[in-house]
Amino acid sequence: MFDILNIKAAVLDMDGTLIDSMGIWHQIDKDFFAEHNLTPPEGISNQVNKMTMEEWADFFTHNFNINMTGKQVIRRIGEMAYAYYAEKIPLKPYVIEFLDFLDSRNIRYGIATATYKKSAIAALKRLGIFDRMQFILTAEEVPSSKKTPEMFLKAAEILGSQTENTLVVEDSLHCLETAVKAGFPTIAVHDNSVPMQEQEKIKSLAGLYGLDLKEILEKINPEQL
Hints:
The protein is an alpha/beta fold and 225 residues long. It has helices at 22-35, 44-48, 53-63, 70-87, 95-104, 117-126, 150-159, 173-181, 196-205, 213-219, and strands at 9-12, 108-112, 136-137, 166-170, 186-189, 208-210. 46% of the residues lie in helices and 10% in strands. The longest helix is centred in the middle third of the chain and has 18 residues, at 70-87. The protein is globular.
């Protein structure tokens, strides 16, 4: 458990944390394979969601009979994703309340996401929270995504905060592991797309864990508010 009084800034994941989008990526994987008359292997979405964009494209082009370059794969997946982000994906519960809490503590915050920037901006604008963010960092600016702490460290630099004072809010195990190893205090929010065995590891690793952001707010010591 971290002390909220020590938190000066926050780095927020988007997919699975602020917006309910992880199931969409499973559908995009299926649709992409279907375009090429291929059947997606079992568990393919869980396998590729830990990859960078370039690794994902390289995986597809080298392991399946797809007559596309890596750049073409990245561009096509981006096109497919944009329609969902611009038109359909909803906020997860209690996001507005959580952002209001951060604002009440004068905690500055922004987005760090592996999602395509165009899609991220479209979703955040449609959902009415784009202007609340100090920045949006994506894998387009930080190619290593969250497999290394580079994106989190860059976010803290933008926010003008130290690692130990910068809260990272995530839903996935590999991103949480990266943040913890780098010394960031962490919150983990449950998402149904995360396998059960990973959920148990997330619960033990995160500084604070909740089934939703309302539970997170309730777990923060009221005496510190």
